[in-house]
Amino acid sequence: MDPVKIFHNPQCGTSRNTLALIRNAGIEPEVVLYLDTPPTREALAALVRDCGLTPREAMRDKGDLYDALKLAEPHWRDDQLLDLMAQHPALINRPIVVTAQGTRLCRPSELVLDILPQPQRGAFTKEDGEVVVNAQGQRVK
């Protein structure tokens, strides 16, 4: 089986749910704690491109750093945003999952189901109580 990689923040509920969905398919992914081991700027640019996103779309737009840098202002160019995300990995939105079927920013977490190489093995309920996969391993919504 081809490897699966998740750029993960264990403090994020969406990231935890995404990792749990990967494991519910019987896959143990490579877990990259990107706040501790951030991707290089080049690798980040490739991830963003492979997700089909612009750097702004791949940027986390919440938090003190985003506000302090005034990143909501439209004058920022894509290359500048990538530079800032590479310097400050907390600005990278998460989780990003890479499989042979594609690369995806998994917000909401169930988007990972579209790119997993194996089906779900059983029911899955998110931390907030939302049922995503039924007992037969089928996506509910």
TrEMBL record:
<comment type="similarity">
    <text>Belongs to the ArsC family.</text>
</comment>
<protein>
    <recommendedName>
        <fullName>Arsenate reductase</fullName>
        <ecNumber>1.20.4.1</ecNumber>
    </recommendedName>
</protein>
<dbReference type="GO" id="GO:0046685">
    <property type="term" value="P:response to arsenic-containing substance"/>
</dbReference>
<dbReference type="Pfam" id="PF03960">
    <property type="entry name" value="ArsC"/>
</dbReference>
<dbReference type="InterPro" id="IPR006660">
    <property type="entry name" value="Arsenate_reductase-like"/>
</dbReference>
<keyword id="KW-0560">Oxidoreductase</keyword>
<dbReference type="InterPro" id="IPR006659">
    <property type="entry name" value="Arsenate_reductase"/>
</dbReference>
<dbReference type="GO" id="GO:0008794">
    <property type="term" value="F:arsenate reductase (glutaredoxin) activity"/>
</dbReference>
<dbReference type="InterPro" id="IPR036249">
    <property type="entry name" value="Thioredoxin-like_sf"/>
</dbReference>
<keyword id="KW-0059">Arsenical resistance</keyword>
